[in-house]
Amino acid sequence: MDLSYGNDSHGAWQTYLAQIDRVAPYLTHLSDYINTLKRPKRCLIVDVPIVMDDGTIQHFEGYRVQHNLSRGPGKGGIRYHPDVDLNEVMALSAWMTIKSAVVNLPFGGAKGGVRVDPSKLSKRELERLTRRFTAEISPIIGPQKDIPAPDVGTNGSIMGWMMDTYSSSVGYTVTGVVTGKPIHLGGSLGRVKATGRGVFITGRHIANRINLPIHGAKVAVQGFGNVGSEAALLFADAGAIVTWVQDHSGTIYNENGLDLPKLVQHVAEHRGVKGFADAQVADDEDFWDASVEIMIPAALESQITVDRAQRLKAKIVLEGANGPTLPAADDVLVERNIVVVPDVICNAGGVTVSYFEWVQDMASYFWTEEEINERLDKLLIQAINDVWSSAEEHQCTLRTAAYILACERILEARQERGIYPG
Ligand code: NAD
């Protein structure tokens, strides 16, 4: 298999391979199996033709990649975005393998996507695209095979259409084929807020470990969507002062603390933080110079560059987004003693409650939000403690420690299963 697709040295898959190379020296006892991690198990590329509202036919390219299934069915979202390509989907699927294993969920890693700008489609076109894409990837998905979920550009309604299309093809309702569904279609309470909650739970835990008091700490958040806004609200509830927020519309700050409930309402009404009354406006680049103790990138990939890493004032970075720190910037943060809680554990609250949703669907028995949050907190604290112990044992960063822990679990499963045919 030629794995040089989109062979750009800055591609996401190349970043992932560099991360595996960094952790390989710690995995010499499993070195016979390390190449398992460097090759996706299965990549499916599909043509998705749909009839547009004006009667013309348009073709879109879709993907489902199952990176590793050694520990259980594939798990990972579906992205609708104009930049989706095989390189990106491969990397995102691999990061799901690592994330599931860090939290010790019985899942492998997968991811899918369609190269499309969903904002340019009508609701009917979006539904046709989703149903045809689901039909095309149906041979390899299923509640015991591979379980998609929402990601950038997709949501609960799209998961509802996916569930319905898959169920129609098998002849009965299969709620467990996707997670992130609306509650009345077998979705789980607590799923929407789970990722932001996980950022808070893991961040607070590590802050305690490094003796950084949350009460009175100043916080900057990039991205005030699902993940960033919930994390900000929980930190404020715990006594932190959220002073800087940046989103796609601009950057605002209030050194006395932003009024978050009002900001949530403003963003819902105006689709961005721009124009919020009780704050001052800053240049976007000034965000990275903010005088804060806690920095939460919760928007996009590749935000913390070497230059920004050199300027950060924060003592701790909580990676709410996937891949917000470039590998070279990671090294700068280490040199500067800035602790990074890596994405594979920091934002794993979402996949953890997706796991709970799948379990509830399989049992057709649903838990209360209290039960969900209790179980979520327990699993994440167990995982972050494991990562901390691994970092102490190997004298390495939390990111390397998380990768050691995850890769050991994945490769030990591979070793115990053996290579077929033996
Ligand atoms: P969202 O769409 O709800 O919010 C995204 C936020 O990022 C918005 O506030 C948007 O304005 C902001 N943003 C977009 N472009 C920006 C730019 N150029 N500069 C600054 N801000 C910008 O998305 P989300 O679900 O909150 O996801 C955010 C990140 O968290 C993504 O990296 C996603 O992959 C990751 N993540 C999300 C989940 C989840 O359960 N939602 C789980 C794991 C990881």
UniProtKB/TrEMBL annotation:
Domain of life, source organism: Bacteria
Annotated Glutamate/phenylalanine/leucine/valine/L-tryptophan dehydrogenase C-terminal domain residues: 188-418
UniProt-annotated site: Important for catalysis, residues: D151
Pfam family, one: ELFV_dehydrog_N
Catalyses which reaction(s): L-glutamate + NADP(+) + H2O = 2-oxoglutarate + NH4(+) + NADPH + H(+)
The UniProt record lists the keyword NAD: yes
Keyword Oxidoreductase on entry: yes
Residues that, per the record, bind substrate: K75, K99, S354
Binding site for NAD(+): T195, N226
Residues the record marks as active site: K111
Protein family: Belongs to the Glu/Leu/Phe/Val dehydrogenases family.
The protein, known as: Glutamate dehydrogenase
Organism per entry: Acinetobacter rudis CIP 110305
